[in-house]
């Protein structure tokens, strides 16, 4: 029995470095995925990610069987971080300023992340992680809008359903050719946000369906 115990200890000790190596590889793959998808968009391949990570393609496929699985993990993390921004905004006293600040921070992140913008535009990456984070972002935005409405800072008729189209309009501005295309969007975000503010004598907004 003594030999069995003596033989088991090196195996157990060897298992820990293997687990650490596996976790390090997983983090390398995720970080490489974030960088590659940000630079090249969702057309990037697992081979591209493996090359960027400095790992064999087989190592990547053992962790993530296809690009969809890796993209779900990458954008689950990305959207979790954006949800954390929205949650932080809820702590501010001025709800409209908090909403505006959150939108600016989230869109600034998207301005330098082609994959995130494609995800916003097409919504083609699903999975439990991204879906949960999207729901959390929506709930935080609903809370901020409700508070801004209570504080009298929000234009009548504005709802949480307006946020995604606003983000889409800014995404379209980001795609325009310009000397500094990644910064031009800030001008138009200010204009759009000003349209959300409560002002005296504003005309009623048309309904979301376009009918009176």
From TrEMBL:
Gene3D superfamilies: Tetracycline Repressor, domain 2. Residues 23-82 form the HTH tetR-type domain. Residues 45-64 bind DNA. InterPro entries: Homeodomain-like_sf (IPR009057), HTH-type_TetR-like_transc_reg (IPR050109), HTH_TetR (IPR001647), Tet_transcr_reg_TetR-rel_C_sf (IPR036271), TetR_SbtR-like_C (IPR049445). The keyword Transcription applies. Pfam families: TetR_C_43 (PF21597), TetR_N (PF00440). Keywords: DNA-binding, Transcription, Transcription regulation. One of its GO terms (molecular function) is DNA-binding transcription factor activity. This is Transcriptional regulator. It comes from Streptomyces himastatinicus ATCC 53653.
